[in-house]
Write a structure and sequence with these properties.
The complex is a heterotrimer of chains A (636), B (118) and C (519). Chain A has 636 residues and is mostly helical. Helix content of chain A is 63%, strand content 3%. Chain A is built from 23 helices and 3 strands. Chain A has helices at residues 8-25, 30-50, 52-57, 80-107, 112-131, 135-153, 159-190, 201-204, 208-225, 234-237, 243-278, 281-300, 305-326, 329-360, 376-390, 396-410, 414-440, 485-494, 515-528, 533-536, 540-543, 595-613, 620-632; strands spanning 2-5, 59-69, 72-77. Chain A has a 3-stranded mixed β-sheet. In chain A, helix 13 (305-326) packs antiparallel against helix 14 (329-360) and helix 16 (396-410) packs parallel to helix 22 (595-613). The longest helix of chain A is centred in the middle third of the chain and has 36 residues, at 243-278. By secondary structure, chain B is mainly alpha-helical. The radius of gyration of chain B is 20 Å and the shape is elongated. The two termini of chain C are 30 Å apart. Chain C is an all-alpha fold and 519 residues long. Chain C has one domain (4-518). Chain C is globular, with a radius of gyration of 22 Å. Chain C has a two-stranded antiparallel sheet with strand order 1-2. The chains are: A mainly alpha (636), B mainly alpha (118), C mainly alpha (519). Chain C: GO terms for molecular function: NADH dehydrogenase (ubiquinone) activity. Chain C: It is found in: Cell membrane. Chain C: This is Multisubunit sodium/proton antiporter, MrpD subunit (TC 2.A.63.1).
């Protein structure tokens, strides 16, 4: 691997810093300020993209910035692994910048200058993480990333946002402290902390106790940002941040920097062989597997869409860590490929959530029945991304999952393959209902969301002999919809009133699901939550006190739906007849929101599909294969 | 024991003075007494130094006298230290005057109560 | 011109006489004299630094009397850097005090005397001379602390005086023991004499113990720190900035010299228990100082307890006794001085805008004073240890040195101290940026809260500042605006903290010759 001394890695990190200056300087002219953001993002992406060919060919660009502390140089190197992350971060920053403009203006948010400047700083720090050539340089940018993202997490300045910001700082600085401790141990043992593909040679012969301690500290420290259980709980709380922040930073930059750190540790510091020798790969994979399953189950119970996406992120990130822990070449490829794959898909999902929030101020899944009518393009993209998250073919998630499955079978640890497949099912379990109810249901005939409502551990017993004798099931069958009148009203009434918090599945066994009570509860809910779309679009059936007994089958027509693949069998046609409890107005494809938001959604979804169809063509797979080849010597 | 006292008696007196001074610093409530205690403490140290300079059977450090001489260096050092001590006492007493003018009392406990009630 | 090193002490004293002598005649000559004196001092210290950088370590015999009979002044890498630091801090504080500080002539005289005393501590090569300069420093500090408003300042000063004198006297007693053991007071000479006397002798050990305790009082290590919070909190802002940057620094430096120039690492090899005990004391100081800092609501007290913790870290670095850790201690010594001075000037400036000095008073301050708030945030994160600022460089070396020396406890404490420091600084930064101001102020556009780049603040903040002060005077909420000097100082400190952190290796290169001699 030859090196070319060049300014481009440095430029890639500095351009966002310059962007901060430009953004702050133009704070009084929002359009110019936004223009600077776009310009900087474009320039950064261009710089990073220009480094791809040489990274692929083995000639890496290096910017040497001198010695930082004796024995450790501050160098930025554009090697293949770094390029994966850098390319991802800079490309998605460009997309997110447009989205941010639409989002912030759509909500007329405060402190936009601080927001855009901190965003630029965060991406610059992320690029520094990507290009760092040794653990200390990575640590520097890692901490800077924390500092730069803190203002974004606490952006809202509400009590909740501040608490989330504090929690974020505590967790991430704690992780940073562990990384520092591990780095010091490493430096002391081997005299170097530079990233060497295949691992630092001296570590193979170092004292195993110290090596394991260093690995544990490093993996644990990076694992905080990678949201491994049990240090994951900052991530759901950080969802209080504006959605572009949740999207780019907490699904792409911050968490990917944690995973990237683990990747560096496994591939370039210890090396797959040493990791296997030390026996620390399997514990890492085990933690990842637990994270995958547990967070998927928790996701099933979340009603707030962003929180559900947060737990989904936690789960998906551990796919990557699982791949890194399994150590076989195929697993490594799968894990590393999932970095960009997940990024595109998750970003699409978050963009959709944000668009929904801006346009309709709806945050909870239980209120999104029938929203496909109001936001067809958005929900279509959501559907596409969900398909990918579950690992179904044609979308990005499938390729990485395929490699992961092969890798876990290669290793002889078939249990991880089982974990992956189960996770796929759980993914379907928590995404499919959202998509289905968006297009094929309306509020009064929708089932209670989220799905898992009963107290885990037992069916509830109704003392009244129960009209509602059936319990809720937690699989996809349920989503097929049972639009029967009594159940529907009761179902609506069973939805917990306080939906701002994660759903607590307490069901009052004394509720006799008569229609009157169902209506009363709907009324009460609307009164107490005036800010929801239900209020702004009060439905006919409430005013008329209709029993809501209309079947979903009445109007099968959809004026503007021209998506054959998603055309419904018909249960959302209430638009004009009685509108449904949330009277979503019908919007045309592309008329539902500004193109600042729809454009990025489309691009991200298209990216996810493209990654699924042409992984090599999208460059990422080629980079990944190169990384794994260098690290393990195996060309897959 | 007795010969320790006999031969190193002066050192012991020095330490005794340091102890008395420390007790006054900590134990007395009156601010002026604390300053006095500080002085006594320092005096103990000075005595220690001066005693250490003594050589038994030696003559004063004069050119007209014959060697061996008592070492003059510690005396010089202690002169400096005494001057430092005097300046410290002066500053301390100036502060005490100012405190008295503000609080009307020199009793440490009373002052603390007054400050808590402020 | 090697006389510069002696003039470093003499010139400020001479300059200090003028305001006292002629103050009756010319009312406001104090500031001018102090400014001139500070500039001359800066020139002298730069001369000394240049001499050291080009020629290496040099010594100067005061009055022509050769050591070990005469007093010797030593200029080497460490003392040169510290003397330059002294000059810079003096210049900054004099500039800041023009608007902020006490304006009496006597204040400026005392400040110059303090400068002389501190310079003396940094350059002297004789242990008794060190006592004299420590006492001069102390006297001037007591007087300066007492210039604060109200009798509380006098009380704090008296407490400082009593405790500090006991400390200095213990130091003197320790010197006495060493003198009795060896018959010499010159540091270099003591080193050879002590090894021939034998490090295990009770005289030597007691001497070491007394000296260390005495200097620990002056450096405010737990549990001898009790004078510090009151002294810092009650003194005027300019004074706090100066003494936090330099006075405890001088004591810690003295500790460094005593341990390495006088006792040498051979002592540690012979009697490891001595430095071990110091390490433990220092580590406890780190933890306790940080915990106490978290409990404070008054910002100056909080920063005072923070100093207790930071000096614990520095002394731990010195006591670990290998080259890496000592390097870390020295780097952190300098870095801490810069950062703390900047933080205190920042607190003084921001308190004027906020109308109070508690953490809650600082709510929403970032909108009203964006530039200084940003610089404050940068300094706070630098002290926490976010790279590439200098706080990180010092910590890195200390932790590395601790690991090399097998002292896992210290390494753990040093690493955890990051989190503890974060605990008390994050509160303040959060209040400043993410809470609304108590009085309704115009929503002026806020500058970026990102702490990594201080240049951004100076570019983007000027408009914001104009807005902020305009907004403030429009709203009529705060009468005070921040002087340009204060802004320059705080932003300069922030830039320096990051900048010196980036060139930390060069700084370490300056220290290396000194440490090679010792190790």
């Amino acid at each position: 691997m030859s090196e070319i001394a060049s300014l481009r890695p440095l430029a890639a990190v500095l351009l966002p810093a310059l962007g901060i200056l430009a953004i702050v300087a133009s704070q009084r002219r929002p359009n110019i300020r936004e223009g600077f953001t776009i310009l900087t993002a474009l320039a950064t992406f261009g710089t990073v993209a220009s480094l791809v060919p040489s990274a692929l060919s083995g000639a890496t660009h290096v910017s040497r910035l001198g010695t930082f502390v004796p024995g450790i140089e501050l160098t930025l190197r554009a090697d293949p692994l770094g390029m994966i992350f850098a390319l991802l971060a800079s490309a998605l920053w460009l997309v997110t910048s447009f989205y941010s403009i639409g989002y912030m203006r759509g909500l007329d948010e405060h402190s936009q200058t601080r927001y855009f400047a901190a965003f630029a700083g965060s991406v610059g720090a992320a690029l520094g993480v990507a290009f760092a050539s040794n653990l200390v340089a990575l640590y520097i940018f890692y901490e800077l990333l924390t500092v730069a993202t803190y203002p974004l997490v606490a952006h809202d300045e509400s009590e909740k946002a501040r608490a989330a910001g504090r929690k974020y700082l505590t967790y991430t600085f704690g992780g940073g402290v562990a990384v520092l401790a591990g780095t010091v141990l490493l430096f002391w043992t081997t005299g170097t902390v530079a990233f060497t593909p295949g691992g630092i040679a001296a570590l193979a012969t170092a004292d195993p106790v110290i090596a394991r301690a260093a690995f544990a500290l490093l993996a644990g420290g990076f694992g905080v940002k990678a949201a491994l259980i049990p240090v994951h709980s900052w991530l759901p709380d950080a969802m209080v941040a504006p959605t572009p922040v949740s999207g780019l930073l907490h699904a792409v930059a911050v968490v990917k920097s944690g995973v990237f750190g683990i990747a560096r540790v496994v591939l370039d510091v210890f090396g797959p062989e040493t990791v296997a020798d030390l026996g620390v790969g399997l514990p890492l994979a085990a933690v990842a597997a637990v994270t995958i399953l547990v967070s998927s189950v928790i996701a099933l119970r979340q009603d707030n869409l962003k929180r559900r996406l947060a737990y989904s992120t936690i789960s998906q990130l551990s796919y990557i860590v699982l791949g890194l822990g399994l150590l076989s070449p195929a697993a490594l490829i799968g894990g590393l490929l999932h970095i960009p794959a997940h990024a595109f898909m998750k970003l699409t999902l978050f963009f959709c959530a944000g668009a929904i929030h801006v346009e309709t101020h709806t945050d909870d899944i239980s209120e999104m029945a029938g929203i496909g009518k109001r936001m067809p393009l958005t929900m279509a993209a959501f559907g596409v991304a969900s398909v990918g998250m579950a690992g179904l073919p044609l979308v990005a998630g499938f390729v990485s999952k395929w490699y992961l499955l092969i890798g876990s079978l290669d290793n002889g640890t078939a249990i991880f393959a089982l974990v992956l497949l189960t996770s796929g099912l759980l993914n379907i379990g928590y995404f499919w209902p959202i998509v289905y109810q968006a297009f094929f249901q309306t509020a009064e005939d929708s089932d209670a969301k989220p799905l898992v409502e009963f107290p885990i551990g037992g069916a509830r017993v109704r003392t009244d002999g129960g009209e509602r004798a059936e319990d809720r099931d937690d699989d996809a069958e349920e989503a097929a919809g049972e639009p029967e009148a009594a159940e529907a009203a009761a179902g609506a009434g069973d939805v917990p009133i306080d939906t701002a918090e994660p759903v607590d599945p307490e069901i009052d066994p004394d509720v006799t699901p008569s229609e009157e009570e169902g209506d009363v509860e709907i009324d009460a809910r609307i009164e107490s939550e005036g800010q929801y779309a239900v209020d702004r679009n009060p439905s006919d059936h409430l005013q008329e006190d209709a029993p809501g007994a209309v079947d979903g089958e009445s109007d099968g027509e959809r004026d503007d739906e021209d998506e054959a693949s998603l055309s419904d069998a018909g249960s959302d046609g209430h638009a004009d007849v009685h509108g449904g409890p949330s009277g979503w107005e019908r919007r045309g494809f592309g008329e539902e929101s500004t193109w600042f938001m729809l454009g990025p959604i489309t691009v991200a979804a298209a990216g996810a599909v493209a990654l699924g169809l042409l992984p090599r063509g999208m460059v990422f797979l080629a980079l990944v294969q190169r990384v794994v080849a260098e690290a393990t010597g195996v060309v897959f | 024991m007795i010969d320790v006292l006999a031969s190193r008696g002066y050192f012991l007196v020095g330490f005794l003075l340091m102890g008395i001074g420390t007790y006054m610093l900590i134990g007395s409530d009156n601010l002026v007494k604390k300053v006095i205690g500080m002085n006594v403490f320092q005096t103990g140290i000075f005595l220690f130094f001066v005693t250490s300079a003594f050589v038994s059977g030696a003559s004063p450090p004069l050119l007209s006298a014959s060697p061996p001489y008592v070492s003059p260096l510690p005396h010089v050092l202690i002169l400096t230290a005494i001057v430092v001590g005097v300046s410290l006492t002066a500053v301390a007493l100036a502060l005490v005057v100012r405190i008295y003018e503000a609080y009307g009392t020199l009793d440490e406990d009373t002052i603390r109560e007054v400050r808590l009630n402020d | 011109m090697t006389d510069a090193i002696a003039l470093l002490v003499a010139v400020p004293i001479v300059f200090a006489l003028f305001p006292i002598a002629f103050g009756g005649r010319w009312e406001h000559m104090g500031w001018g004299t102090a400014a001139l004196g500070a500039l001359v001092h800066l020139g002298l210290s730069l001369t000394v630094a240049a001499t050291v950088l080009s020629g290496g370590r040099f010594t100067y015999a005061v009055g022509g009397y050769t050591p070990p009979f005469g007093i010797e002044l030593v200029g080497d890498g460490v003392s040169a850097v510290l003397v330059v630091l002294t000059s810079l801090v003096t210049v900054a504080v004099v500039a800041y005090a023009r608007r902020a500080g006490p304006h009496s002539n006597t204040f400026y005289s005392e400040l110059l005397v303090l400068t002389a005393g501190i310079s003396g501590v940094f350059v002297t090569g004789d242990v008794f001379n060190l006592y004299v300069f420590i006492e001069i420093t102390g006297l001037a500090t007591y007087a300066l602390v007492a210039t604060g408003r109200g009798p509380a300042a006098a009380l704090a000063s008296l407490k400082y005086l009593l405790v500090g004198t006991v400390g200095a006297s213990l130091y003197l007693l320790g010197v006495g023991y060493l003198y009795v053991a060896t018959g010499t007071l010159n540091m270099a000479d003591l080193a050879s004499q002590l090894s021939s006397v034998g490090y295990g002798s009770p005289l030597v050990l007691t001497g070491f113990g007394l000296i260390v305790v005495g200097l620990a009082v002056k450096a405010a290590l737990f549990p001898l720190h009790t004078w510090q919070p009151g002294a810092y909190a009650e003194s005027p802002d300019s004074v706090t900035a100066y003494i936090s940057a330099l006075v405890s620094t001088a004591a810690a430096y003295a500790l460094f010299r005593i341990i390495y120039a006088v006792f040498t690492p051979a002592f540690d090899a012979a009697v490891p228990f001595a430095l071990d005990a110091l390490v433990i004391l220092a580590s406890v100081s780190v933890v306790v100082g940080s915990v106490l800092a978290v409990l404070q609501s008054d910002l100056k007290r909080m920063l005072a307890y923070s100093s207790v913790a930071q000096f614990g870290l520095i002394v731990a670095g010195f006591a670990i006794a290998n080259a890496t850790a000592v390097t870390g201690g020295l780097v952190h010594l300098i870095g801490h001085a810069v950062m703390k001075a900047g933080l205190f000037v920042g607190v003084g400036a921001l308190a004027g805008v906020a109308g109070g000095r508690t953490v809650d008073d600082f709510a929403g301050l970032a909108e009203r004073a964006p530039l200084v708030s940003a610089a404050f945030a940068v300094l706070a994160f630098a002290l926490v240890g976010v790279p590439p600022a200098i706080g990180f460089a010092g910590k890195w070396h200390i932790v590395l040195g601790a690991v090399e020396g097998g002292r896992w406890g210290v390494a753990l404490v040093a690493v955890v101290s990051t989190l503890l420091t974060l605990a008390y600084f994050a509160r303040v930064v959060e209040r400043m940026y993410f809470r609304d101001a108590p009085a309704p102020a115009e929503e002026s556009v806020a500058a970026a809260a990102d702490g990594g780049d201080a240049e951004l603040a100076s570019d983007g903040g000027s408009d914001g500042d104009g807005d902020a002060s305009g907004a403030a005077s429009d709203a009529g909420a705060e009468p005070e605006t921040i002087s340009m000097t204060a802004r320059i100082i705080v932003v300069g400190a922030a830039v320096a903290a990051v900048g010196v952190g980036l060139v930390a290796t060069d700084l370490i290169a300056v220290f290396e010759p000194v440490l090679e001699v010792y190790f």
